[in-house]
Design brief:
The chain has about 130 residues and is an alpha+beta fold. It has 3 helices and 7 strands; from the N terminus they run αββββαββαβ. It has a 7-stranded antiparallel beta sheet. Strand 3 and strand 4 form a beta hairpin.
């Protein structure tokens, strides 16, 4: 397990590369829900972000956990390299939060996300990092 306040340059560089990730949330019955997503990571703020539609199962799972948020994990891999960020996720819908997350997504994935008036942001306050990157 890596210290999230002192991640290696290689680990941080891996989170800037263009990779599809997975987001794992827990359904209300406790079973895992794993879906592919795009993730951006801001190590200075300790926040990972996922843009998505407000009507998705992943959002419903996070909201069902209550106002304090839900424990989640995002993971990416490429060949033998992998990295996981864990933390508490909350849902944000403020236009400035959505615009910021869209901008970060466009930078990492080198494409502007499609227009979605129902878009929200899942923000993960990262408190654990694991990996071999």
């Amino acid at each position: 397990m890596a210290d999230v306040r002192n991640l290696t340059p290689g680990y941080l560089a891996f989170w800037r590369e263009r990779h599809v990730c997975t987001l794992t949330t827990l359904r209300p019955d406790g079973t895992p829900h794993v879906v592919p997503v795009g993730v951006t990571y801001d190590p200075e703020a300790g926040v990972a972000r996922v843009i998505t539609g407000k009507g998705t199962r992943k959002v419903a799972n996070i909201l069902a956990a209550g106002p304090e948020g839900a424990r989640v994990a995002v993971c990416q891999m490429h060949k033998a390299r992998w990295a996981t960020l864990e933390g508490v996720a909350t849902v944000r819908s403020e236009p400035e939060a959505v615009a910021d997350a869209e901008s970060r997504y466009a930078e990492r994935y080198e494409r502007t996300p499609r227009v979605n008036p129902e878009r929200i942001v899942i923000e993960i306050a990262v408190d654990r990092a694991l990996g071999n990157a």
